User: What shape does this take?
Amino acid sequence: GFQTVQDSPYNTPLGIAFLEAGQEMGYDIRDVNGEKQTGFALYQYTMRRGTRCSTAKAFLRPIRLRKNLHISMYSHVIKILIDPASRRAYGIQFIKNGKTHTVLAKKEVILSAGAINSPQLLMLSGIGPQKHLEEKGIQVIHDSPGVGKNLQDHIAAVVTFLIDHPISLVINRLVNLNTAIRYAIKEDGPLTSSVGLEAVGFIPTKYANRSDDWPDMEFMLTSTTTPADGGTQVKKAHGLTDEFYKEVYESVNFKDTFGVFAMMLRPKSRGEILLRSKNPLEYPLLYHNYLTHPHDVNVLREGAKAAVAYGQTEALKRFGARFHAVPLPNCKHLPLYTDEYWNCYIRQYTLSIYHYSCTAKMGPATDPYAVVDSHLRVSI
Assistant: This one.
């Protein structure tokens, strides 16, 4: 196809060790995009010649000169134009360089703005929960209570291991003249790494139905982790306070580590997206409601426990792997490794993997919270 998928141009020695550790725990190495998913594999990437192969590079760049295609960069869509009588979308409005522009559609408008901006634009255009739209002073074209509801996301508990060998991705070895030259000339090397992601494992916890190939836990296995940059960028990305980072990670700044991100695949907690105001340039309000369902806490706890066991396999012990067992600040009163400690752990250090979804639900006309039908047409 047009979008290039390839293996990583660069792996540390940990990549193959991650697969061997999975085998040691009784799982097969397989193509996780194939017939069966349970098992371990090296990551594949939408990458071309060492750089990201985005959808724009794959699909738009080859046809960008077509006379019937117009691409507007640096443009912010503010409204879908909908005829209140026929309820048909007939165009959009967008802002570019401080000016408002209108584009009319001959046939249809395709809304593809992601799980956050799609419901925001629908509500700004008059499709959404009637009471909420009226509170924001927006003319209601269709009362669709499911718009912005049912927000789901993949979240992960971070489990860090120290190792004795200088093979992981540490910032001062990752960013230097040698790696830059290797990247520029050979299009490989550590600068082609996708934030250290090397291997993936899909496993069932005790809460999954083991008679089905339907794992509920994903291990994102990285040849780096939180303190690899000395508390500069990763700390911010993970939303850690200075106090938390200093107590837990400062002692291992720039040390060789690897991480297991124990990610829950099918959360039962549900959030929602609401408008802050009818101003389309204001960010919407996100109420994630993470871990409000006890099932999610249970699955993440079992994933974290499995991650600790995974780090104790012989395949990883060869590198001197040991769990970074500094208790988290709010959990020090609980005995390490108990279920109570892990429940506390995941409530204190769990992060989003940015897989927001489900805020414009597909469903039959009998489902009052369905936003689109089976043909992806907005149900009005």
Observations:
- The radius of gyration is 24 Å.
- Residues 20 and 58 are 34 Å apart (CA to CA).
